[in-house]
Amino acid sequence: MSRVKNIAFILLITIMVLSACTPADTAAPAAEEPEAAAEAEAEVAEEAEEPAEAEPTTYTYADLVLCYPQLGAESDWRTANSASIKSSADELGIQQLIFSDAQQKQENQISAVRACIQQGVSVIALPPVVEDGWDAVLTEAKEAGIPVIIVDRSVSADASLYDVHLGSNMFLEGQRAAEEMNALLPDGGNILELSGTVGSGAAVGRADGFRDSLNDNITILDSQTGNFTRAEAIPVMEAFLKKYAGEIDGLFIHNDDMAIGAIEALKAAGINPGDIKIVSVDGTRGGFQAMIDGWIQADVECNPLLGPQVMEIALALMNGETVEAEILTNETVYYPDNAEELLPTRQY
Ligand code: GYE
User: Distance from the CA of 110 to the center of ligand 1, in angstroms?
Assistant: First the structure.
């Protein structure tokens, strides 16, 4: 091959190689640049977002919208419970308290819970009027991702349908009441029971606990409901007095309001304080006054001042914290001997 031919061949190869490489290869780094820049930017952005992702939002009381579908206004206990919820909400500065009064009707409470779900509240705290019949609406709350605290009375629904139960141990209250009755009637006797709202956790627990611990020599002649109200207890006691005249040694009454109603009927029938031994529940001011007056011989405490705990638990649930499934209130029994001294200290 001549030199000229050689040079031409080399040139051809060079041109071919160059044309094969250019523009793609030479353009490649240039094309990569925006991509790399974008990647780098994304990395920076990711870095900026990372701490926010790793550290979830911590809610404060100012974020809390709490639904409290109160069951009614049937007793002094209930009035104190409502006041405790409202004042705690106020003091802690929660964003909103959605409070309603179901007038002791479950259907009203269910509608109130549904309205709260629709509104997308942060937490629902439900004091259920009765134990059964909550499954559907609790499932709806669960599906909507709204935490639920069952307050005061219990529900029969599966525990997976709510987050916490906060309230009193009603069975233990019943047992304590029985121990008091045992002590008041050491030789046994006949008693009557004025029970709370039929099907309510408070009435069921107290009745069961009472029967569990009552001495065998004490007979429960009859049990009727006074629906936890003063007004409804009066005719029940009047009927008891007619039916069991002269036979009644003691009364187990499920709350102080009904005890006060029953005492009115006893007074009207000419019965003297202490003639019939009375064990009541709650420890309201009215109950303390009835102990001072000699009508009630023992008052089993049931504490309604649950507001601060409800708020604390609600905020914890809102923040995704784990809370104990059942939180029971510490309670005691009150007696006439120091009722006068304690009355001024009573908050409800
Ligand atoms: O004892 C009674 C009220 O559920 C513990 O309800 C509550 C009860 C309380 O009406 O007074």
Answer: 19
